[in-house]
């Protein structure tokens, strides 16, 4: 992996281009390249038309390792820059700032060449049709692959001599993709039985890919892909409810073991908390070291879910570890949550180059010097060796870049190690926590990886969800649970404060109260880009979690407002489903209905689940309209659900949720400020149940009662009829009947543990 030059702190740059006026950290990284970069926009397009030259479009993001490599090798090279400046108009795009632009050209490259990734390198005609593309290009020809300079010459030659063929093929490709990616439904609803078949098929395919030795559902490189965990846990719950407890436990074992292996592996930052992007090997050991917000939010939820099933504090501690990392390192002054931390950093302040993982890895001697008397215990526990430990797989370090370095990994369980030393396990764990703290303090003095402090609405939505859910699920931890560094061990209710602050930041800076529209991101002010489907869907999901886990009704009101705006901007009213963009920018050539649940879930999958949740709270015409929209959306993706379920695991869950005849409702009535209310809310969320909605209402609050009288008069009536000034009353409703009221958390937990038939 190439090293990357350090940007000088001095302001006397040899070159400065138009990117210097941008806000995106990624664009600013390229502001002093000799390449005459333009941001995406009309100025660049008209320059291309005026000069009658193609556009070179380079898309990446600020924490992308191979983007940095291509910058060092090509974009900082004056010879390469001259070719680009003479023959092309060069445009830089931050994929996190403009996912709509990225989607168009990534789809093109994937369709034509069978793969994609970042940096994305695409050549366009002046009217923005793609001519050819690829990802990372080395500067010179090697290993039988053309180098970047060769590619530039070939594109220039083709533009001058075969322009008609090139332009026609680009236009044809866009037409074909447009047709393929804006699928419409032939019917307004899914055929009978499809949700159950899709769920079963997806679970079966994932189980077939399960790695029984190291966990996870696939081979190296291993990505966490939390949507797979969600699907398997949902499948587990359905099996358990239908009396197939043996099969259910097998599914749960796969998920639990996978999460254990990930948490014990090097893909988990044992010293500072949180997870790296993925593991290059099969044993979750040597990671690609960048840390992305979308991973943290989803993984925290996965560990919370398994904790709520098993009540094993191993999982609750990992979820706390992730959330405490975000609180410590990734939250801005107004509660906004930042996007990512880079994989690369300098080994020392005066180093000329940045290296992958430098901030996170250790030599055996460094560990000994920092830890002192317990160094031997710590080194045994984390497999630390003088020669380096990246030797567990031939894929861990094929080029010997980490020779003599160690990526912490736990290969033995703490109780066995403590027993070997004749030491109580609690004392052993205390020593590990103290040692991690010492290493953390020393690590603080190292040059930190670059922080991308852009605030992205969709990713904040994912994190908001996990913080809100943690505030109640973690109240089930056994009294006296001991927490060790890097876990802080705070009162879970603090996590709700984090969720509400992040949501308030978005409402203040990225939401227009008049138009009811979102902006996509924020850095030194709101971005020019509008909110996209994922921004609306993921934020709505986070707001529903804030409300269901104890937040005020105003969060639910905002979620409903946003859902109405989402329908107005993105819904295909004739063909069904949601487009990824509002379709108002003529420079974005494709409007796609995204369904793939990958590193992030798709906006359509999250939207189905949002609609199921919302329609279990509201009634009347709003209910009817949104129920129809969800049904129509699923019909659009019927073929995918039938034939390629593993590509859409979260949509499989959504389809099954939609098909459940009657969703369980837990209605809590009482004063929200009381301790009893908090306890009852924690009891309502104590069991894992994705087909449950929690509604809470204080009949003494006029605003709340007015909202429920307008949106669902039955709930308002239940609140009036069951209010007791000195108690919190809970009712569990399903199949148009409600249980007798209960007024203590133990009775509520018992009621929620009953199988559907006995309930």
UniProtKB/TrEMBL annotation:
It holds the Pfam family Thioredox_DsbH. Residues 16-176 form the Spermatogenesis-associated protein 20-like TRX domain. CDD domains: SSP411. This is Spermatogenesis-associated protein 20-like TRX domain-containing protein. The lineage of its organism: Eukaryota, Viridiplantae, Streptophyta, Embryophyta, Tracheophyta.
């Amino acid at each position: 992996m190439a090293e990357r030059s350090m940007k000088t702190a001095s302001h006397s740059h040899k070159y400065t281009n138009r990117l210097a006026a941008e806000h995106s950290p990624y664009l600013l990284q390229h502001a002093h390249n000799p390449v005459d970069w333009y941001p995406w926009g009309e100025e660049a397009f008209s320059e291309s038309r005026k000069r009658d030259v193609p556009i070179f479009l380079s898309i990446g993001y600020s924490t992308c390792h191979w983007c940095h490599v291509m910058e060092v090798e090509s974009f900082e090279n004056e010879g390469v820059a001259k070719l680009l400046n003479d023959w092309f108009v060069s445009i830089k795009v931050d994929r996190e700032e403009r996912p709509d632009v990225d989607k168009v050209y990534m789809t093109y490259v994937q369709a034509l060449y069978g793969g994609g990734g970042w940096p994305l390198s695409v050549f366009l005609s002046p009217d923005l049709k793609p001519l050819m593309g690829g990802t990372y290009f080395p500067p010179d020809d090697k290993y039988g692959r053309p180098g970047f300079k060769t590619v530039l010459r070939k594109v220039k030659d083709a533009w001058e001599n075969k322009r008609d063929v090139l332009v026609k093929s680009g236009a044809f490709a866009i037409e074909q993709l447009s047709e393929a990616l804006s699928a419409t439904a032939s019917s307004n609803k899914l055929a009978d039985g499809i949700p159950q078949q899709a769920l079963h098929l997806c679970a079966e395919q994932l189980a077939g890919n399960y790695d029984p030795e190291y966990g996870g559902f696939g081979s190296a490189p291993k990505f966490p892909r939390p949507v797979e965990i969600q699907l398997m846990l949902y499948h587990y719950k359905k099996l358990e409810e239908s009396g197939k407890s043996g099969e259910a436990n097998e599914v749960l074992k796969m998920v639990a073991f996978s999460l254990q292996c990930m948490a014990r592996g090097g893909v988990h930052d044992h010293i500072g908390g949180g997870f790296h992007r993925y593991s290059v090997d099969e044993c979750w050991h040597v990671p690609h070291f960048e840390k992305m917000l979308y991973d943290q939010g989803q993984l925290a939820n996965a560990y919370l879910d398994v904790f709520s099933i098993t009540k094993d504090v191993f999982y609750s501690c990992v979820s706390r570890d992730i959330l405490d990392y975000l609180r410590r390192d990734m939250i801005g002054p107004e509660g906004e949550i930042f996007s990512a931390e880079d994989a690369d950093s300098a080994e020392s302040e005066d180093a000329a180059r940045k290296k992958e993982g430098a901030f996170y890895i250790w030599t055996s001697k460094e560990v000994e010097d920092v830890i002192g008397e317990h160094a031997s215990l710590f080194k045994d526990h984390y497999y630390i060796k003088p020669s380096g430990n990246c030797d567990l797989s031939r894929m861990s370090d094929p080029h010997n870049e980490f020779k003599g370095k160690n990526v912490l990994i736990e290969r033995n369980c703490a109780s066995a190690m403590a027993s070997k030393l004749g030491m109580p396990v609690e004392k052993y764990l205390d020593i590990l926590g103290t040692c991690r703290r010492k290493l953390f303090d020393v690590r603080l003095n190292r040059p930190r990886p670059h922080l991308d402090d852009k605030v992205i609405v969709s990713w904040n939505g994912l994190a908001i969800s996990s913080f809100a859910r943690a505030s109640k699920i973690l109240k089930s931890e056994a009294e006296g649970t001991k927490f060790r560094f890097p876990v802080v061990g705070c009162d879970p209710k603090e996590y709700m404060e984090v969720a509400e602050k992040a949501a308030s930041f978005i409402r203040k800076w990225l939401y227009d109260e008049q138009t009811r529209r979102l902006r996509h991101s924020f850095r030194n002010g709101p971005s020019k880009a509008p909110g996209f489907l994922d921004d609306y869907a993921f934020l709505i999901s986070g707001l529903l979690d804030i409300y269901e886990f104890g937040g005020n009704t105003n969060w639910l009101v905002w979620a409903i407002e946003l859902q109405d705006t989402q329908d107005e901007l993105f819904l295909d009213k004739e063909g069904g489903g949601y487009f990824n963009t509002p379709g108002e920018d003529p420079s974005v050539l494709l409007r796609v209905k995204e369904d793939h649940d990958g590193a992030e879930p798709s906006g359509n999958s999250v939207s189905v689940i949002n609609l199921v949740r919302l329609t279990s709270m509201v009634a009347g015409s709003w209910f009817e309209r949104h129920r129809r929209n969800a049904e129509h959306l699923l019909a659009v993706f019927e073929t995918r659900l039938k034939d390629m379920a593993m590509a859409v695991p979260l949509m499989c869950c959504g389809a099954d949720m939609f098909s459940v005849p009657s969703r369980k409702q837990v209605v809590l009535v009482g004063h929200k400020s009381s301790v009893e209310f908090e306890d009852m809310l924690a009891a309502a969320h104590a069991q894992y149940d994705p087909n449950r909605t929690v509604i809470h209402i204080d009949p003494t609050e006029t605003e709340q009662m007015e909202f429920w009288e307008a949106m669902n008069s039955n709930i308002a009536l239940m609140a009036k009829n069951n209010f007791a000034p000195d108690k919190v009353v809970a009712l569990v409703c399903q199949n148009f009947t409600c249980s007798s009221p209960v007024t203590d958390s133990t009775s509520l937990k018992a009621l929620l543990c009953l199988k559907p038939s006995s309930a």
